[in-house]
Amino acid sequence: MTTHDIPATDPVAHLVRRRPDAPVFFFRPDRLAETARRFRAEFPGQVTYAVKANPAPEILETLASAGIAAFDVASPEEMARVRAAAPGAVLHYNNPVRSGDEIAAGRARGVASWSVDRASELDKLSALAPGTEVSVRLRLPVAGAVYDFGAKFGADPDVAAELLRQVAARGLTPSMTFHPGTQCTDGAAWARYIHAAADVAARACVPLARLNVGGGFPSHRDADAPDLARIFDAIGSAARTAFDAPPTLLCEPGRAMVAEAVTLCLRVKATGAEAITLNDGVYGALGEWRDLPPAARIRVVSPDGAARRGDPVRRVVFGPTCDSLDRLPDALPLPGDVAEGDYVLIPGMGAYGAALVTGFNGYGARDVVTLGAAE
Ligand SMILES: *Cc1c(COP(=O)(O)O)cnc(C)c1O
């Protein structure tokens, strides 16, 4: 990854000056720090960051200096990245399935908290990581998320109650966790889970040390920014109603924390009446597009920095590789006067953009330009 620094905060100034032919991630550390501060000020509990959304060193370092002190990791590689960027940070290993070697790697790096969704994983942990916090991961059928995370991980309420009893019986610190999905726009998704978690804890007769309400907070994809404060209120009030003595709450946002900090800039390689070819695609930074298209707020500028303002025309969009699957699923409305050499600026691409780049066929966005920092 190449990082250049340029003082201006406007990506177009950089484009006009440098005319990059390869894709560029424009990173705004000030925006990331601002989002972290907002989560810390408004979420009714502790705020951690789900590293998988974007594990780049500059992201982890910015979050650590904005006061994010704990990170949700899912692999030894993610632990190493956090330790390199923020040596004193607290690690939560919330991938519920781990090999014995991965547990040992977590122990060696001082993991403070783990999650489980089945008895066999609890057996491994109580042997290999005695005395730590173990969160039982609950799942419910969920409406309103783009993906259903319960399809892979989580214990149904009866199993969760039994696991929670076992966690307490084995002298581990009992907590619970869930993950409602991703890009959930309705606080009700969390409230249902919070009530169900309180019910599981009551049935198990085990008071929870902490309740981790996962990630899933929405990023800005439509014309209007999502209302995070309303979701935070729904979470806080559900916890107060569901528990007599609410446990400490914890969240682990990925997408909503980092998305707005990065604008992806792609270049138009060729145009035709019906199709357009860009310099990155679904094997690169647009890997999530099939499930979650970033529809609104795209702008196109000429190499001189002039905004293209033609009436929108829907065109098929191909990526740069020689694979015929390398196209966006739906035609994309772009200004009718878009031309070869133009730049397409896509805001809100900080989450699951860089993290999903494959490098297939030698393509895939790599370059990061940090905006607002000294040269
Ligand atoms: C992916 C993931 C997150 C982050 O999800 P976002 O939708 O990006 O906020 C948080 N917790 C767990 C357990 C996850 O798997």
TrEMBL record:
A Gene Ontology MF term for this entry? ornithine decarboxylase activity
Per the record, the domain of life is: Bacteria
State which pathway it belongs to. Amine and polyamine biosynthesis; putrescine biosynthesis via L-ornithine pathway; putrescine from L-ornithine: step 1/1
The answer, when asked if Cytoplasm is one of the entry's keywords, is no
Q: Which Pfam families match?
A: Orn_Arg_deC_N, Orn_DAP_Arg_deC
Family affiliation: Belongs to the Orn/Lys/Arg decarboxylase class-II family.
Q: Which residues form the Orn/DAP/Arg decarboxylase 2 N-terminal domain?
A: 32-259
Q: N6-(pyridoxal phosphate)lysine is carried by which residues?
A: 52
> Where is the Orn/DAP/Arg decarboxylase 2 C-terminal domain positioned along the sequence?
260-350
Protein name per its UniProtKB record: ornithine decarboxylase
* Cofactor requirements of the protein: pyridoxal 5'-phosphate
GO BP terms in the entry: putrescine biosynthetic process from arginine, via ornithine
Q: Which reactions is this enzyme annotated as catalysing?
A: L-ornithine + H(+) = putrescine + CO2
Protein species of origin? Roseivivax jejudonensis
Task: Tell me which UniProt keywords the record has, alphabetically.
Answer: Lyase, Pyridoxal phosphate
Instruction: Report the SUPFAM superfamilies cross-referenced here.
Output: Alanine racemase C-terminal domain-like, PLP-binding barrel
